[in-house]
Write a structure and sequence with these properties.
Layout lengths: L1 H7 L5 H10 L1 E5 L4 E3 L7 E7 L2 E6 L5 E7 L4 E2 L2 H6 L6 E4 L3 E7 H10 L1 H27 L2 H11 L9 H8 L3 H10 L3
Antiparallel strand pairs: 1-8, 2-7, 3-6, 3-8, 4-5, 4-7
Length: 188
């Protein structure tokens, strides 16, 4: 799947894609396994072949706040930690059986130094991540919870039933009770 995804970007020659595949490796995660935990330094970036992951942090009161849900055909890492090489303030956990294609930061840095196409790739990945995050912030501030839930279902209908309700509620910034009322009104 990683090969097809990289080909679809229209940046790389086949030989460049083959090179990154040699540097990376496939890893399987069971439901509940961690890709990274708060306090660790992010040394890997991963492409999600299958499965769902959630990124979360702890509020000042100690509650888990799910701020990102990640689905197949996207890249994941603790970006701030990955860039700064400082301890991560987030945890990334598999919500289902998950297969990731993982490439170490030092290998990606090597590819970037040797070939500017990888720098372009990293730039596009960061831009996509930023736009997704910005869209989520605006949606959270402008849309009602019911619309946020509807939008989430429309974007990822095949995965929603695999995500525990408390994580969806946290992601939407509402209580589980409020989510239950919203779900009772929708036809999904």
């Amino acid at each position: 799947m990683i090969k097809e995804y990289l080909s679809s970007l229209k940046i790389f020659k086949n030989s460049e894609i083959d090179e990154v595949i040699q540097f990376g490796s496939y890893h399987k995660y069971k439901k509940g396994d961690f890709f990274i935990k708060e306090g660790q330094i992010s040394k890997n970036m991963a492409f999600i072949n299958s499965g769902i992951l959630r990124s979360y942090y702890y509020s000042n009161s100690g509650n888990e706040i799910t701020y990102c849900l990640s689905f197949p055909e996207s890249f994941i890492t603790a970006f701030s930690s990955y860039i700064s090489q400082e301890k991560s303030s987030i945890t990334i956990q598999a919500l289902s059986e998950t297969e990731l294609f993982v490439i170490q930061k030092n290998q990606m840095d090597k590819l970037i130094k040797e070939n500017t196409n990888w720098l372009l790739f990293q730039k596009q990945t960061a831009e996509k991540y930023f736009m997704t995050l910005e869209k989520r912030v605006f949606e959270h501030q402008k849309e009602k919870a019911e619309n946020r839930y509807t939008n989430l279902i429309k974007r990822h209908p095949e995965y929603i039933k695999q995500i525990p309700l408390q994580y969806i509620a946290s992601y939407l910034g509402i209580t589980q009770r409020h989510l239950s009322r919203i779900r009772a009104k929708t036809d999904f």
